[in-house]
């Protein structure tokens, strides 16, 4: 994709600090890290959304994400935990429309926070959950 920053990184048109690359995916450090060591794992073939992503590539992205998490935990960077995060679509906070898995180290007192909305105070009934599950099952 001509305007995709990640495709430009893959084509070596933009610089990156690469950690890993195979036939399906590439991992490199994020230029706007949550914490030092924050990295991205992306498919080598452009896919704007999870729906467009080949399942085998998606599985490999997660395998590489796990490997990167292990490296973060065993390295010299401050890392007491790891977050894996994918935003799929603008409403989910996706800013670059090329699938990417964020892998970032966490530690007590870091500044990153996930805030939960007031709607989480109202748990759905079992009947409501069953109805949602049935609707989703019908789309699998």
Total strands: 5
What letter string, H or E per element, gives the SSE order? HEEEHEEH
Distance between the termini: 29 Å
Described by the principal axes of the CA atoms, the overall outline is: globular
Helix count, per DSSP? Answer: 3
CATH architecture: 2-Layer Sandwich
DSSP strand (E) fraction?
A: 15-25%
CATH topology: HIT family, subunit A
Given the helix and strand composition, which structural class is it?
Answer: alpha+beta
Number of domains: 1
Query: What is the CATH H-level superfamily?
Result: HIT-like
Determine the fraction of residues in helical runs and give it as a percent range: 25-40%
CATH class: Alpha Beta
Spatial sequence of strands, sheet with the most strands: 1-2-3-5-4
Low-confidence stretches: none
Residue-averaged pLDDT:
95
Can you walk through the features of this model?
This protein is of the alpha+beta class and 140 residues long. It is built from 3 helices and 5 strands; from the N terminus they run H-E-E-E-H-E-E-H. It has a 5-stranded antiparallel sheet with strand order 1-2-3-5-4, covered by helices on one side. Strand 1 and strand 2 (25-29) form a beta hairpin. The protein is globular.
């Amino acid at each position: 994709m001509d305007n995709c920053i990640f495709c430009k990184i893959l084509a070596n048109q933009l610089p990156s600090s690469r950690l890993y690359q195979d036939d399906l995916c590439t991992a490199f450090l994020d230029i706007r890290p949550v914490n030092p060591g924050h990295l991205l794992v992306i498919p080598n073939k452009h896919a704007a959304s999870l729906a467009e992503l080949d399942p085998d590539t998606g599985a490999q992205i997660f395998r590489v994400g796990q490997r990167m998490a292990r490296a973060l935990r065993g390295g010299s960077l401050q890392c007491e935990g790891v977050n894996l995060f994918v935003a799929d679509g603008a409403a989910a906070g996706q800013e670059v429309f090329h699938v990417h898995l964020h892998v970032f180290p966490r530690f007590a007192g870091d500044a990153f926070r996930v805030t939960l909305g007031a709607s989480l105070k109202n748990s759905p009934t079992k009947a409501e959950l069953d109805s949602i599950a049935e609707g989703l099952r019908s789309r699998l």
